Amino acid sequence: MRQRAACREAEAEARVSPGAMAAGGLSRSERKAAERVRRLREEQQRERLRQVSRILRKAAAERSAEEGRLLAESADLVTELQGRSRRREGLKRRQEEVCDDPEELRRKVRELAGAVRNAKYLVVYTGAGISTAASIPDYRGPNGVWTLLQKGRQVSAADLSEAEPTLTHMSIARLHEQKLVQHVVSQNCDGLHLRSGLPRSAISELHGNMYIEVCTACAPNREYVRVFDVTERTALHRHQTGRACHKCGAPLRDTIVHFGERGTLGQPLNWEAATQAASRADTILCLGSSLKVLKKYPRLWCMTKPPSRRPKLYIVNLQWTPKDDWAVLKLHGKCDDVMQLLMDELGLEIPTYSRWQDPIFSLATPLRAGEEGSHSRKSLCRSREELQAEDQGAPLSSAPVLGGWFGRGCAKGTKRKRVT
């Protein structure tokens, strides 16, 4: 009542005569009165919205006659609030992890195995979900990076140099070796596909590789594979690693494509091979990806082809993805569990990862004299003896070690504080 009386009083103050308008518009006092009316109306609307929201939370039998009349008079607000509630519930359901029961999962894996055997050109798309078994967090799972940030919680991770290729990585490498998989398109920056033994030509790392830095002054670009995370000093729109090209002396840069950036490097992104593979594929298997980023790349989905000629899509993920309705089959399960069942069904042995045989050591370019102090990241070691020697020379720290691509990428949606 008080708000309505105040609003009527403000409206009376804000009334303007035609003569005043003709004489050149509103005076200062009239503008202030009109602004006061606008704010009071907005506050009335917000208060009405709060009242209706409180009433809707009650069971119908618990609402008074006066509350019932208010709802009847506020039909538009009721519709708006009910729509908001449905959208919130829908988003919540999409974030829930769903697991198929064991028998249902085995049935689906048998169907997937048939598709793998019959595929003429199978391409695998991988996301962060295939690396969670290596203690690298995903982004949109219950404990994912974006999920925790949205809840206002801190994000931490184990030393990424401790991560090793998972059962899924090794299974994919074996499937490629057996010519059942022709190409792998990955969103991951952790380098685990490379370390699993998958050939460089068979991988498109669309968002870069934490172990690779390049010289863009050389033509073609000169790559340097390292045995440590090269992204220590890099971040969004800031990619120089602090080292120089051994041939031309130009600054080296990392290969990471952060959120909001466009990848322009030929390697290790390998977009040309990814696009060619997608255009030739008759089957696509998506493992551990929410597909919320990959869906934005139309070249990967053959959208220029009629629907009947597009690749058959199989998805392995615990959560909803925007491509679920396009999929021939959706398997709700952890990637390692599904791949173990798949390899058993195909009668293929999963190779065991051996750090001693890790391809990164043969691909790596050693640092030159004077470059040893250019990073403080722990280096990969082939043996326990090397690891112990590395640990003895490294300063002790209890803080989690985050790469530039990971730690600084976590700032999505946050504003930087201005330094004064």
TrEMBL record:
<dbReference type="GO" id="GO:0140861">
    <property type="term" value="P:DNA repair-dependent chromatin remodeling"/>
</dbReference>
<keyword id="KW-0597">Phosphoprotein</keyword>
<feature type="active site" description="Proton acceptor">
    <location>
        <position position="207"/>
    </location>
</feature>
<keyword id="KW-0808">Transferase</keyword>
<dbReference type="GO" id="GO:0070403">
    <property type="term" value="F:NAD+ binding"/>
</dbReference>
<dbReference type="InterPro" id="IPR050134">
    <property type="entry name" value="NAD-dep_sirtuin_deacylases"/>
</dbReference>
<comment type="similarity">
    <text>Belongs to the sirtuin family. Class IV subfamily.</text>
</comment>
<feature type="domain" description="Deacetylase sirtuin-type">
    <location>
        <begin position="102"/>
        <end position="349"/>
    </location>
</feature>
<dbReference type="InterPro" id="IPR003000">
    <property type="entry name" value="Sirtuin"/>
</dbReference>
<dbReference type="InterPro" id="IPR026590">
    <property type="entry name" value="Ssirtuin_cat_dom"/>
</dbReference>
<dbReference type="GO" id="GO:0046872">
    <property type="term" value="F:metal ion binding"/>
</dbReference>
<feature type="binding site">
    <location>
        <position position="245"/>
    </location>
    <ligand>
        <name>Zn(2+)</name>
    </ligand>
</feature>
<dbReference type="GO" id="GO:0097372">
    <property type="term" value="F:histone H3K18 deacetylase activity, NAD-dependent"/>
</dbReference>
<keyword id="KW-0234">DNA repair</keyword>
<protein>
    <recommendedName>
        <fullName>NAD-dependent protein deacetylase sirtuin-7</fullName>
        <ecNumber>2.3.1.286</ecNumber>
    </recommendedName>
</protein>
<feature type="compositionally biased region" description="Basic and acidic residues">
    <location>
        <begin position="28"/>
        <end position="43"/>
    </location>
</feature>
<feature type="binding site">
    <location>
        <position position="248"/>
    </location>
    <ligand>
        <name>Zn(2+)</name>
    </ligand>
</feature>
<feature type="region of interest" description="Disordered">
    <location>
        <begin position="1"/>
        <end position="43"/>
    </location>
</feature>
<keyword id="KW-0520">NAD</keyword>
<dbReference type="GO" id="GO:0010821">
    <property type="term" value="P:regulation of mitochondrion organization"/>
</dbReference>
<feature type="region of interest" description="Disordered">
    <location>
        <begin position="374"/>
        <end position="395"/>
    </location>
</feature>
<keyword id="KW-0862">Zinc</keyword>
<dbReference type="GO" id="GO:0040029">
    <property type="term" value="P:epigenetic regulation of gene expression"/>
</dbReference>
<keyword id="KW-0227">DNA damage</keyword>
<dbReference type="GO" id="GO:0000785">
    <property type="term" value="C:chromatin"/>
</dbReference>
<feature type="compositionally biased region" description="Basic and acidic residues">
    <location>
        <begin position="1"/>
        <end position="14"/>
    </location>
</feature>
<feature type="binding site">
    <location>
        <position position="218"/>
    </location>
    <ligand>
        <name>Zn(2+)</name>
    </ligand>
</feature>
<dbReference type="GO" id="GO:0006281">
    <property type="term" value="P:DNA repair"/>
</dbReference>
<dbReference type="InterPro" id="IPR029035">
    <property type="entry name" value="DHS-like_NAD/FAD-binding_dom"/>
</dbReference>
<comment type="subunit">
    <text>Interacts with UBTF and the RNA polymerase I complex. Interacts with components of the B-WICH complex, such as MYBBP1A, SMARCA5/SNF2H and BAZ1B/WSTF. Interacts with ELK4, leading to stabilization at target promoters for H3K18Ac deacetylation. Interacts with histone H2A and/or histone H2B. Interacts with DNMT1. Interacts with SIRT1.</text>
</comment>
<feature type="binding site">
    <location>
        <position position="215"/>
    </location>
    <ligand>
        <name>Zn(2+)</name>
    </ligand>
</feature>
<dbReference type="GO" id="GO:0005634">
    <property type="term" value="C:nucleus"/>
</dbReference>
<keyword id="KW-0479">Metal-binding</keyword>
<dbReference type="Pfam" id="PF02146">
    <property type="entry name" value="SIR2"/>
</dbReference>
<dbReference type="GO" id="GO:0035861">
    <property type="term" value="C:site of double-strand break"/>
</dbReference>
